[in-house]
Amino acid sequence: MKRNLSNFLFLILVFALPPTWGQSKGTDLKKLSSVELQWEDSAGAFMYEVEVYNSKNKLLKKFVSKTSLFKFKSTSGKIKLRGRVMDAYGKKGLWTDMIETQVPPDDIKFAPDTSEISAKANTKTLKGKVNLSWPESTQAKKYLVKVYDKDGKVVAEKTVNKTSESFEFDGGSYHYSITPIGNDQIAGKEVMAPRPIQIDTAQLASERFDVVKGPKGELQIKMPVKPGMKVFGELEYAHHLAEDWTPVLKYSPLEQSIWTPDTKLKPGRYRVAFWVTRAGWTDSGKFKHEFVIKPTEPDITGQP
């Protein structure tokens, strides 16, 4: 960033430096951001005097430099700078106007792990719980977590002061990002996590289908009846000695509470299957029952 400061020109660069590991024990080794000041040489300038203030106008650092490059460590947040020129005789020029700039926290650096974060939806809540985590950012005080669905729409957003957080989602595919936030609410770069999120939908429990005989000895299967649940079914046919099953009918959905075979079915082996469905759930497993239609049964064939 460049701005004319009457006697010289500042170019401000911001980056993160690692802690100084040579410091003695007990010293705060927390990483700091480093601000680099670069300005163009001013004609007749012998030295440069620069002052650095925080967002509350508190003087953080004052230094004199013979060169046009100076570096100092800083916490994240808003800072203000001003400078003036000194000549070889010690005569000082006027202070420049204040420059306001920002020191953001360091970017999140994820490990190159693309393995899936997966969970299965709970059968009661229909949501799957996952724990998302990320590396610490230099000078971050908190983190903004955003979760996107497969279409890029934000479905969850939360600001936390730790490096992990739990979420619950409906079945589907998601991905998430982390934005570090430092002092003075200065945000760093939003970084997408390389690991996708996959929530598998919950499967309905198998329901009870009771097989009984009707008043005339006919086959009856009693359907489970519950609010919000629908029963679907299918009927298949096979010759007596055959192993392959041929689809005959589809029931979608069944309205009656008791199912009985159609009286016009031709003789042979039959297999009926039923399952239950509910919005937002994976269908239950299939209940299957085999039965035989004999050609000698007048109540089935209709023969005298």
Descriptive report:
Residues 1-7, 14-29 and 299-304 have low confidence and may be disordered. The protein is 1% helix and 49% strand. It is mainly beta and 304 residues long. It has one helix spanning 298-301, and strands at 2-5, 8-17, 32-39, 47-54, 59-65, 69-74, 77-86, 99-103, 117-120, 127-133, 142-149, 154-160, 164-170, 172-181, 191-192, 197-200, 210-213, 219-222, 230-238, 246-251, 258-259, 268-277, 287-293. The radius of gyration is 37 Å and the shape is rod-shaped.
Strand content: over 45%
Whole-number mean pLDDT: 84
Question: How many strands appear in the DSSP assignment?
Answer: 23
Alpha carbon gap, first and last residue: 100 Å
Largest sheet: 6 strands, mixed
* Quaternary structure classification: single chain
How many helices?
1
Query: What coarse outline follows from CA principal-axis ratios?
Result: rod-shaped
Stretches with pLDDT under 50, minimum 5 residues: 1-7, 14-29, 299-304
Sheet/helix structural class: mainly beta
Q: Could you estimate the helical fraction of the residues in percent? A: under 10%
From the alpha carbons, calculate the radius of gyration and give it in angstroms: 37 Å
What's the helix-strand series? EEEEEEEEEEEEEEEEEEEEEEEH
